[in-house]
Design brief:
single chain; mainly alpha; 2 domains; elongated
């Protein structure tokens, strides 16, 4: 938390040093503040903050890649696969061991990915009920979520 405050403080100071401050100046100041926190992480004890910010940015890029990949797959399914060959299915995805925030992020990321939708969350927050447009192998869908979205979320939340 202290590192975040320092980062915002450097961004605000940078913003105040500009003759005509803009939102871009604030982001430049935030980037400079992050660079300072990165360079002086042993002194400022900001290693965890730096790791989490980098992991969050990597996750955004990973999610963008998964989103584009799912869009291309959805286009292929809707244009070139006959409807009678599609195998839509509901499947249960185990989220035990995740916090409620991590479950929320995961469920929204799954729902934002074209071709999949989070239908429900169990009352004890241990399972997600998903609908997948074409699911010939439910285990492969679970592995894909584990290896991409879940791993990326855990990288910056823990």
């Amino acid at each position: 938390m202290r590192s975040l405050v320092l980062n915002v403080l450097v961004a605000v100071i940078w913003l105040l040093l500009q003759t005509q401050p803009t939102l871009l100046d604030f982001f430049v100041g935030a980037a400079l503040g992050f660079l300072l926190l990165f360079l002086f992480r042993p002194v400022l004890h900001s290693g965890d903050y730096v790791r989490r910010v980098i992991a969050a940015n990597v996750f955004v890029l990973l999610f963008a890649w998964e989103f584009l990949r799912a869009c291309v797959q959805l286009i292929r399914l809707t244009l070139f696969v006959p409807v009678d060959r599609l195998r839509p299915d509901f499947l249960i995805y185990d989220v035990s061991g995740l916090t409620r925030l991590e479950i929320l992020l995961l469920s929204h990321c799954v729902s934002l990915t074209p071709g999949t939708c989070t239908v429900d969350i169990s009352h004890d927050f241990s399972r997600l009920y998903l609908h997948v447009l074409d699911c010939p192998d439910p285990a492969a869908v679970r592995r894909d979520i584990d290896n991409t979205l879940r791993r990326g979320i855990l990288a910056f939340t823990r």
